[in-house]
Specification:
The chain has 726 residues and is of the alpha/beta class. The protein is built from 24 helices and 27 strands. It has a 16-stranded mixed β-sheet with strand order 1-2-4-3-5-6-7-8-27-26-25-24-22-23-21-20, with helices on both faces. The N terminus is likely disordered.
C-alpha cells in the first residue's frame, strides 16, 4: 500500500467513526443491530429516525436518499423488523440498485407534516453524506406510508399540489392505503385522488408539470383497498387518462415520468418483493438515465460464416445497417427526394444512425432520428454495403429478408429486386398490411457482383409498432423448404367454413410432445389474433416454443393450442357476427373431429391478444356452455363490447370461468384502463382470477414472459385424459 492509499484509507476510517459518533450523539443510540449499517438519529421534538448508510462509503461522495414513510403513519421501526435492510443489501449485491441512503423517520400527530419532514431532512443531511436538494431525494412507503409519500412528495399537505418539487422529486407508493379508516391522516389532510385529480385534470398543456417528478405506484390486485374509490387503481387511471394520450400528456407515455403495477397476490408477493422496482426506477431517475420500465436484455449478434459453394451457400447480412427516416432526410436536406433510390445512394448515408435490424420492433432508443417515438408512422431507409467473395457461386440466389412492419421495397446496387406492399418503385404503400409475410426475393445473377455491393431497403409503417422486426437477413442458395406437415407438431391446416359461405379458413395447430405416440385426449386453447393480423403472428412471436418450454418444465399441462386466422379481408373481424359463428361452430367441430380433444367446456378455453383478447371474452361470455375460461392479453374489450357485458354480470355468471388478464402499464391504446375496471369488478365480486398490469407495452415482448404463468393458471388441474368425459 503506498502513502496515498494509506492516507485515503485513514480518512475513510475517520469519516466512518465520525458518522457513528454523530449518530450516537444526536440520537443517543447505537447501530440498530450487530453488523448493521443502520444509525439512529434524533430530530424535531425528540423524534427518532433510522438511517441505513451505504455499506462502503466513498470519501467525499454524496449519495441520493430515499425516505420511507411509516406504514402505520407514525412508527419507523416496522420496516427494520420486516428485514428491509437485508432486502436492500441483496438488491445492491445483485447490481439492481446503486448505493443510496435510506431514511426511516417516525412521525407525530398534531404537528404539521411538512415541518416534520423539513426537520428530518435537515438532520440527515447534517450528519450523513446525503446529496442536497429535491433532485437527490425520493420518498416511498407501504400502506399509510404510500399515502404520505404522495401527499408529501407533491407538497400537497397544505391542500395544494406543487408544480416544482419541494422536498422530493421521486415519489412511490407500495400497496398504499389512500382511503381506509385506518389511515390516521385522511380526515385532516384529505384524499390524494381528489387533490391530484383537480390538478391533473385531463392533461392538456397543464400536464407538462408532471415531468418535474418521477412517480411510481404498485398494489396487490387481491386487496379491496386497491380498488376502493380514490384508491391506487383510481390514482393510476388519473395518470393514464384520457383514452388516448396526446403530445402534452407526458406521463401517459414516458416511463421516466410515471409507471405502475397492479398484480395478483401470487405475483405481487409482499412490498419487499416489489421494492426492487421502486429503488431501481428511483436510481434511473436520480442518474438521469432513460428507462423503459422493462427488463433489460442484451442480444449480441454473432455473424454466420460465409459459404461460397454448394447447396448451403450463404452470406450473412444481419448486424449493423445505416438507418434514417424519410422525415429526417427531408429535414436535413429538403432537396433530396426520400423516395428515389438514386438520390438516396448519393447522400452521405454512412453518417446515418447505425442500427441492427431483424431483432425486434422499433423502440424509443432504436435510432436518434425516431426522436424517441417507437410508433413512428411513415417511410424509412436501411442501407448497408457488403463484400461478395471472389469465386462465390452467383447462380440461383435469393435474399431472405425476414419480416417488416408493414411494407417494403428492396434495392441491390440501385436496382429493385423485390417488394411487398409497395407496387410502384419509390411509390406508396398499398394498404394490404403484409406485416406477417416472410420476405424472400430472387437475386439476379448479373446484378450481384464480386467485391462491394450495396443493399437498400425502404419500409413503411402506417400505424402502431413498426420496423424490420425479424430475420434472418442473408443471401442463400434457393432451396425447397417444404416439409411433411404430418411429421411436425406445429403445422398449418384449413377448412371450408359454412358460416362464412364456404370461405377457406386457415388455422395453425400446436400439439404437445408425445401426442402421436399417446392415446390421450387433451385440453384445447383457441388463441385469437389481433387487429390487422393472422394466426401466424403467434408463430412469429415464438409462442409455440414458449409452450413447449412450459410443458417440459411441468408448469403447463400438455395441451393442444389452435391459432386461427379470422378470414376477414382486412383481418379485423373483431371475432363477432359470422366470424364468431365460424369460431364457435365450424372451427370447434373441425378440431374436435380431427384431433384428440376433450369435447367439454371444462377442457376448452379461449385466449387472445388485443382484438383477440376482446374477442375471447366476447365469445366466452356469450357461450358459457362452450368455454371454461379466458386468457386475455391486453384485450380490446371496449371495441368488441365485451367490457360492457362483463361489467353487467354478477358473481354467479362470471364465476363459471377461469379468468387470466394481463396488460402493459403503457399500452399504446390505454387498454390498461379497461383492465383496471375489469380487475376491480372481479375483486369486488370475489371471483377468483389472475390479474396483472405491469411495465410494458402493446407487444409480444410484454406477453411472452407471462405466457407460462397465464397458461398454468388457465389449465391448472386440467390434465389429458384417457377417455372423453360425458
Amino acid at each position: 500500500m503506498n502513502k496515498k492509499q494509506a492516507g485515503v484509507r485513514f480518512l475513510a476510517v475517520v469519516w466512518a467513526a465520525f458518522t457513528l459518533l454523530s449518530g450516537n450523539l444526536a440520537g443517543g443510540g447505537t447501530a440498530y443491530a450487530a453488523q448493521s449499517m443502520i444509525r439512529e438519529l434524533t430530530y424535531g421534538d425528540g423524534q427518532k429516525l433510522y438511517v441505513l448508510l451505504p455499506e462502503k462509503e466513498a470519501l467525499g461522495e454524496r449519495y441520493p436518499s430515499v425516505y420511507f414513510m411509516p406504514q402505520d403513519g407514525y412508527g419507523a421501526r416496522q420496516y427494520l423488523e420486516d428485514g428491509i435492510e437485508n432486502r436492500i443489501r441483496a438488491l445492491e449485491e445483485e447490481g439492481d440498485i446503486p448505493e443510496m441512503i435510506c431514511v426511516f423517520p417516525e412521525l407525530r400527530a398534531g404537528k404539521p407534516l411538512e415541518d416534520q419532514i423539513r426537520e428530518a431532512i435537515a438532520v440527515v443531511e447534517d450528519h450523513c453524506p446525503a446529496g442536497r436538494g429535491a433532485s437527490m431525494r425520493g420518498v416511498t412507503g407501504f400502506s399509510v406510508g404510500g399515502y404520505l409519500s404522495f401527499l408529501l412528495g407533491y407538497g400537497a399537505a397544505d391542500g395544494e399540489v406543487d408544480e416544482e418539487p419541494l422536498f422530493f422529486s421521486k415519489i412511490a407508493s407500495q400497496d398504499g392505503d389512500f382511503t381506509s379508516r385506518d389511515n390516521p391522516f385522511l380526515e385532516e389532510y384529505g384524499d390524494v385522488y381528489s387533490l391530484l385529480s383537480g390538478r391533473i385534470g385531463g392533461f392538456g398543456a397543464d400536464g407538462q408539470w408532471l415531468g418535474n417528478y418521477y412517480t411510481y405506484l404498485d398494489c396487490n390486485a387481491d386487496s379491496s383497498l386497491a380498488w376502493a374509490e380514490g384508491g391506487s387503481a383510481d390514482i393510476a387511471s388519473l395518470f393514464r387518462e384520457p383514452g388516448l394520450a396526446d403530445e402534452n400528456s407526458p406521463s401517459a407515455w414516458d416511463y421516466d415520468v410515471f409507471a405502475y403495477s397492479i398484480r395478483s397476490s401470487v405475483l405481487y408477493g409482499t412490498y419487499l418483493d416489489q421494492l426492487g422496482s421502486v429503488l431501481k426506477n428511483f436510481a434511473h431517475a436520480f442518474s438521469g438515465e432513460e428507462g423503459d420500465g422493462t427488463e433489460e436484455t442484451e442480444t449480441e449478434y454473432q455473424p454466420l460464416e460465409t459459404i461460397t459453394e454448394g447447396a448451403e451457400r450463404r452470406i450473412d447480412l444481419a448486424g449493423s445497417w445505416y438507418f434514417r427516416t424519410a422525415d429526417a432526410l427531408r429535414e436535413s436536406d429538403p432537396e433530396v427526394s426520400s423516395e428515389k433510390i438514386g438520390e438516396i445512394l448519393d447522400t452521405d448515408w454512412r453518417e446515418w444512425d447505425v442500427v441492427q435490424p431483424g431483432l425486434d420492433w422499433w423502440s424509443s432508443d432504436f435510432a436518434s432520428c425516431l426522436k424517441g417515438n417507437p410508433y413512428y408512422a411513415g417511410y424509412a431507409w436501411y442501407i448497408r454495403d457488403f463484400v461478395l467473395p471472389e469465386g462465390f457461386d452467383r447462380k440461383d440466389l435469393q435474399l431472405e429478408a425476414g419480416m417488416m412492419d408493414e411494407a417494403d421495397e428492396i434495392y441491390l446496387n440501385g436496382k429493385r429486386i423485390g417488394q411487398t406492399g409497395i407496387p410502384d418503385e419509390g411509390g406508396s404503400y398499398d394498404g394490404t398490411n403484409p406485416w406477417d409475410v416472410e420476405r424472400i426475393y430472387p437475386v439476379p445473377e448479373d446484378l450481384i457482383r464480386p467485391g462491394e455491393n450495396v443493399l437498400a431497403v425502404r419500409i413503411c409503417n402506417s400505424n402502431g409498432a413498426g420496423g424490420w422486426y425479424a430475420g434472418p437477413i442473408r443471401i442463400t442458395a434457393k432451396a425447397d423448404k417444404e416439409q411433411d406437415s404430418s411429421k411436425r407438431r406445429f403445422y398449418t391446416d384449413s377448412f371450408s367454413s359454412d358460416s362464412l359461405k364456404g370461405q377457406e379458413i386457415e388455422y395453425r395447430v400446436f400439439l404437445p410432445e408425445g401426442y402421436d405416440e399417446s392415446e390421450l385426449r387433451y385440453p384445447v386453447v383457441y388463441m385469437l389474433h389481433g387487429y390487422g393480423s393472422t394466426g401466424k403472428s403467434f408463430e412469429i412471436a415464438g409462442v409455440p416454443a414458449v409452450l413447449d418450454e412450459g410443458i417440459a418444465e411441468g408448469k403447463i399441462p400438455p395441451c393442444i393450442v389452435i391459432f386461427p386466422s379470422d378470414g376477414h379481408p382486412q383481418k379485423q373481424s373483431w371475432w363477432s357476427g359470422a366470424y364468431a359463428k365460424m369460431l364457435n361452430e365450424d372451427l370447434i367441430s373441425r378440431v374436435d373431429s380431427t384431433l384428440r380433444t376433450v369435447n367439454s367446456r371444462e377442457y376448452r378455453f379461449l385466449a387472445g391478444e388485443s382484438m383477440g383478447g376482446g374477442g375471447a371474452y366476447l365469445n366466452a361470455l356469450a357461450h358459457p356452455e362452450l368455454y371454461g375460461g379466458v386468457f386475455d392479453i391486453y384485450g380490446a374489450l371496449r371495441y368488441t363490447g365485451a367490457l360492457k357485458t362483463f361489467l353487467e354480470m354478477d358473481a354467479g355468471q362470471l364465476g363459471q370461468f377461469r379468468h387470466v388478464s394481463i396488460c402493459g402499464s403503457h399500452d399504446l391504446y390505454c387498454f390498461d384502463l379497461d383492465h383496471i375496471r375489469m380487475g376491480g369488478h372481479l375483486t369486488r365480486l370475489k371471483v377468483p382470477h389472475l390479474f396483472e398490469i405491469d411495465s410494458g407495452e402493446h407487444s409480444s415482448s410484454f406477453y411472452l414472459p407471462r405466457l407460462k404463468d397465464g397458461f398454468a393458471y388457465l389449465l391448472a388441474g386440467v390434465e389429458p385424459v384417457r377417455n372423453e368425459r360425458e
